[in-house]
Amino acid sequence: MTTTPAIRAVNLVKIYQSGRGLPVPAVRGVDLTVDPGEFVAIMGPSGSGKSTLIHLLGGLDTRTSGEIWLDGKRADTLSESGWAVLRREKIGFVFQFFNLVTNMTVADNVELPALLGGASPRHARERREYLLGELGLTDRAAAAPAQLSGGEQQRVALARALANQPRLLLADEPTGNLDSRNTRDVLKLLSRVHRQGQTIVLVTHDARVAGLADRVVSLLDGEIVDDGAIVRRRGPGGTAGDVVELRG
Ligand SMILES: Nc1ncnc2c1ncn2[C@@H]1O[C@H](COP(=O)(O)OP(=O)(O)O)[C@@H](O)[C@H]1O
Ligand SMILES: [Mg+2]
Fold first, then answer.
1. What is the mean pLDDT of residues 174-181?
2. Residue nearest atom 2 in ligand 1 by C-alpha distance
3. d(CA 106, CA 103)
4. C-beta of residue 154 within 8 angstroms of C-beta of residue 171
């Protein structure tokens, strides 16, 4: 039996047409398959097309050409409202710049996706309490996003993305603004949900985050230049300091 990929992108291309300027090819023929339950980290220098690729996979931007299949269903041909339904039901998205609803509390920001997805108010509240607890945000539940630090807003955005227990978590640099303690909380939560079967595709610059992934995909100038499983070897000192190595 072959499993249906969670994501299959075929020759995906995005060319931005900006005003009178030259067209900018941001994603240039990406082929990417992600299995259910797999954790893939996307790395690459600034401007290499990481955000564009992850936005395309979540339907937040439209492709120029190529195909996107999610759970075996063609997705790139969906309308905006078709994508909105798909995201509500199946995808949690952590934006690079958080996109929290500014006039709602932290608690409401996290509960909203679960409620929109049809969870009971009690279930949505329990899920919110669990996620905020895991991310060290319990005492910020009544705050407005504007009262939070960048790192706190980023963790709220992750909690919101996971509120609905989405089949697919897409995240654009979810630890980009975090100090090391908060990064640790985020890493712990990501590994826990991954162990529970969560499919994750995330963009990161952080080797500790990439070290949790099953695979690292490297982008350069809009193309995949490396796509390899991670092999973990024990470091000399035992459990601490695992050596992470990329395999072609
Ligand atoms: N809305 C846009 N309009 C025009 N060009 C864009 C737009 N978004 C991104 N780009 C360009 O596409 C390329 C890839 O950008 P991006 O996907 O944001 O890269 P990364 O996330 O790896 O830093 C860059 O050259 C960037 O300037
Ligand atoms: Mg980016």
1. 87
2. 16
3. 10
4. no
Helix, strand, coil abundance in the chain, percent, nearest 5: 35, 30, 35
Instruction: Enumerate residues with CB within 5 Å of ligand 2 (an ion).
Output: 51
| Percent of the chain residues past pLDDT 70, beyond the cut | 92
Residue extents of the structural domains in the chain: 36-58+78-246
Instruction: From 236, 241, 229, 185, select the one nearest 41 (Cα to Cα).
Output: 229
pTM of the full structure = 0.90
Distance from Cα 160 to the centre of ligand 2, integer Å: 20
Pocket, ligand 1, Cβ cutoff 6 A: 16, 18, 24, 26, 44, 46-52
What pLDDT, on the 0 to 100 scale, is given for residue 18? 78
- The rounded Å distance from CA 147 to ligand 2 centre is 25
The CATH number given to 36-58+78-246 is 3.40.50.300
Q: How confident is the model at residue 181 (pLDDT cuts 50, 70, 90)?
A: confident
Segment 169-183 mean pLDDT:
90
